Automatic annotation (TrEMBL):
Pfam family, one: Acetyltransf_CG
Recorded coiled-coil stretches: none
Name of the protein in question: N-acetyltransferase
N-acetyltransferase domain segment(s): 1-100, 6-95
Length: 104
């Protein structure tokens, strides 16, 4: 089964699901949601799933969802911030006035 990313608002995080049956949590990106903004604060992937691109899938899916929901992104998490640096087409999710603060 292909990995998938799901939003778990009750846990304030996005989870990437993988494994043989596609139900094992392979990683997550924690966030804090407030009026019109989503602050990504921590991202973690299980070392057993390293090298499969799941962290990138998680970041892209979470940011795509933020865009679809019209949310501005605050990338406090170094992984999410680094992913945005490598994919500048996502920098517009961070308000221009906040980009210098995050090195974007």
């Amino acid at each position: 089964m292909e990995p998938q990313v799901v939003n778990r608002p009750e846990r304030s995080r996005y989870e990437v699901l993988a494994g043989d049956d596609g139900t094992e949590t392979a990683g997550f990106a924690e966030y804090f949601l407030s009026e019109g903004e989503i602050a990504f604060i921590h991202t973690e992937t299980d070392p057993r799933f390293a090298g499969r691109g799941l962290g990138g899938l998680l970041a892209q899916s979470a940011l795509d969802d933020a865009r679809a929901r019209g949310l501005h992104v605050l990338p406090y998490c170094p992984f999410i911030r680094g992913w945005i640096r490598k994919h500048p087409e996502y920098a517009d999710l961070v308000l221009e006035t906040h980009r210098p603060r995050f090195g974007l």
